[in-house]
Amino acid sequence: MGRTRNWNGGATFSYPRGGSQGAPAAKQCPFYKKIPGTTFVVDAFRYGTIPGCTAYFLSHFHYDHYQGLSKHFRHAIYSSKVTCNLVKKKIRVADRYLHPLPLNTPCDVEGVQVTLLEANHCPGAVMFLFQLPDGKNLLHTGDFRADTSMECYPALTGCKVHTLYLDTTYCNPAYSFPAQMEVIDFAVGVAVEAVQHNPKTLIVCGSYTIGKERVFFAIAEALGCKVCATRDKKNTLDCLDSDQVKRLVTLNGRETRLHVLPMKDLKFNSLKSYLEGYRPQYDSVLAFEPTGWTHNNSVSTVANIRPKRHGNITVYGIPYSEHSSYTEMKRFVQFLQPAKILPTVNNGSPKSRHAMEQIFQQWDSEGKQQSLASWVK
Ligand SMILES: [Zn+2]
């Protein structure tokens, strides 16, 4: 870090300094959102029109990534089909600015080969592999949960990545949580048992705009029931072009015992009054609140998950993360062996950047020792 590299004038190749005094500087697109050697940016809508930028890539439809995007946006946006559907429906950006790209298919964008790869985050979330005419490969993970299946992505096989723009949300060994399938199996098991024990159980799953759908769809499939969603949530789910959505989602709360509610409605009092609206059909609530890693919910195995109970309302916080755990991130980086890593999350303070830099160096030397050991064998 620290050296200066200009990109269409003005941009420097160093992280902005925090805590400076005086008038606030105009929001300038930081270097880690720009793809050097191109005129592309990733997830950089909050900086308005960026001078010299010709293509705005959007990794997925979470607010902190599309913030600043409005129906008045007048530049080319590249993303997955699902994310383009969401941008069109929820933000009303005009069709002519939206360029949906297929997955796993190298596409030419202004002379740069761009391949979208499934990011295992929320629906529509992708990683971008940029392959430049000079032979440099840059991979931007967007938000992702690394998975061993990514090691079999044809686009990454034998691909020498120069710069990895890495989702470093949980880049610390303290961040350990169970695999998604383990958490889903746990929730399904609890739900099935609750319904067997009391057929008048109403099941509620908390949800944000998009993400964590796998939890409630798995419960629906296991119980053989539909999923009731609010009108707003259904509009969002309709953008996913998914057979499961068409088959399972309903607006009629009387039609199914499984309801999806906004996360903010999972407080005991809210659930209590929600249940009142469904008596006498149901007389108790079992709720699941999928969270990422939290201090209150720092379990590395599902065996340690404990519910909170209040009368006939039971709430399970479940550690369902859509970001990589530390060990998953480490394995992905050691598989990819990038020449350089740029953290895209928690990169605001010199202290946390330094800590991550140390971790990356450790992974690198460990990885080299391992490959040397396997070479010697
Ligand atoms: Zn996200």
UniProtKB/TrEMBL annotation:
Q: Give the location in the cell.
A: Nucleus
Reaction catalysed? Answer: a beta-lactam + H2O = a substituted beta-amino acid
Its EC number(s): 3.5.2.6
Nucleus listed as a keyword: yes
Q: What keywords sit in the KW lines?
A: DNA damage, DNA repair, Nucleus
Name under which the protein is recorded: DNA cross-link repair 1A protein
Task: Give start and end of each Metallo-beta-lactamase domain.
Answer: 28-175
Pfam families documented for this protein? DRMBL
SUPFAM superfamilies attached to this UniProt entry: Metallo-hydrolase/oxidoreductase
Please name the GO terms of the biological process aspect recorded for this protein, alphabetically.
Answer: DNA repair
For this chain, the family text in UniProt reads: Belongs to the DNA repair metallo-beta-lactamase (DRMBL) family.
The biased composition feature labelled Polar residues covers 1-11
A GO molecular-function descriptor: beta-lactamase activity
Is DNA repair among this UniProt entry's keywords?
Answer: yes
UniProt region (Disordered), positions on chain = 1-23
A single Gene Ontology CC term: nucleus
Q: Which InterPro entries match?
A: DRMBL (IPR011084), Metallo-B-lactamas (IPR001279), RibonucZ/Hydroxyglut_hydro (IPR036866)
